[in-house]
# Entry
Amino acid sequence: YSDYARVLYSGGFVLSYFVTYAAHYIPAARIIESELIALRLLALVVAGWAVAAQWRKSRTMAVLVLAAAHLTIFISGPGPRSAFAIVLLSGAAAFFLLWNRWYYVAAVGLFGSYLNQTFWMIHSAGRNLPLDFWIGLGFLSAHFAVFALADLFAREEIRRHTVPTWFRSLFLSFNSAAFLLLSSALVARFAFTQGHHDVLYFTFAGVLIALGLSYLRVQRGDPIYNAYLTKGVAVLTLGL
# Structure
């Protein structure tokens, strides 16, 4: 009955999340007037959910908790706390990958992190402050680094046997492409960086090539190095 029990666990947490959400965001059920209190309660439910997912070693619960956490961030709207929370969730997804070997759970976290980061950037599009550029680029770099390094240092059993190479390549390509697209949009938005896409491309190409060489050295010729070197050369060519 273990699989059935995990479904019941997940259903219970989903219900608790919805009730907490409804207590403020659905007018007919509103009993909590403060949005800040409602968001803190939602975060508390999500945190308890994550602990239970780790304790029960349940992939289903881990997927649902990441989805619910990203939904909470989306509900709360863009802001400094949201940006930090997205990075924390990226770290949580990487933890599930490294500690429990749940690569497909990390893929859900990857998609959710970049989706919420996109909404955050759209919301702050009207400002043209250099500080906003560096903050946005810093958060994007953190997302990219977390997921790239999570695969680089994943156990050999995951990289060689558990997860197909094509899926890992797709996962890492999405990570690279999402970073490049969002950072390019960031460079194009600000007056002091417009026309300097080449600097971004050259720098990112160097990072991709360095990651490819790291797989050759650290992971004994893991085939992913081919994907990184190819992407690095392609981005370098784009910069030229």
Summary: The chain has a mean pLDDT of 84. DSSP finds ten helices and no strands in the chain.
